[in-house]
Amino acid sequence: MEQKPSEIIEAFLALVAQSHTEYNNSKGKVDYFNKHTYELVHKLEDCPDKTLFYFARQWRQETQDRRKERDNMALWETIHEFGSSEKNKPFLRRLKGLVTEQKRTEGYLETPPEQREFKGGAD
User: How many CA atoms lie within 13 A of 80 on its CB side?
Assistant: First the structure.
């Protein structure tokens, strides 16, 4: 077995946490680019003909950067919404408890049988 079950569950929880960071960072950048577009439209009106080509190239680069961020935002959006959903928060909390319990079980099973301590049982 390459990965323990607890490591797989932890990786999923880390993915959900990463989705929040990735989505929010990209959303902030997209919002900035959207706001900045309105400013650029006004600058375009006053842009001298000599610098129009330079201005257009800069704007095109910004729209390409915006597209990259928008694509990244779309990539993480579903996972972010899953992790942010009030319906799923109890499930994610139970998964965190499951990781703790699973680690305890894995630790017990990694101990050689002759060194395991038996707790509880019948009279």
Answer: 16
